[in-house]
Write a structure and sequence with these properties.
The chain has three helices and two strands, in the order ββααα. The protein is mostly helical.
Length: 126
């Protein structure tokens, strides 16, 4: 199983790779796996396309701005704590954690939407 680091999370690739040395059996299995992948593609395109049919560049820009604002808030909070010179209290640590979590969630959504457009599940409206 291979891993891929994306922003702050690790994604595991668990695609099956046949070990059978019979070329005919490998082709048959790959054909079945391609059918499964295509079924997932069609389902994603249908469901996501219906749910996000008004996605446009302006919405993506607003999401990017919201994400940048969350990143700045997280960093500003950390710098504020550093400048105070006092030990971090549990309440302050919780606020910092909440700011980081918000930023990371927004990054994940942005990346997911970008992948959806890239894979053709949804189109950006002009």
């Amino acid at each position: 199983m291979s891993t891929k680091m994306t922003s702050s999370t690790r994604r595991y690739s668990d695609h099956f790779e046949p070990q059978d040395t019979d070329p005919q059996e490998q082709r048959r299995l790959r054909g079945q796996l391609e059918q499964i992948d295509y079924a997932a593609y069609v389902a994603n395109r249908e469901i996501i396309g219906q749910s996000l049919n008004n996605l446009d560049a302006a919405a993506m820009q607003k999401l990017a701005l919201l994400t940048a604002t969350a990143r700045a808030k997280w960093a500003a909070e950390a710098l504020r704590l550093a400048h105070s010179g006092s030990p971090v209290t549990p309440d302050q640590a919780a606020r910092l954690t909440a700011a980081r979590t918000a930023f990371e969630e927004l990054v994940e959504v942005y990346d997911a939407l970008r992948r959806m457009v890239e894979r053709g599940y949804v189109s950006l409206k002009a």
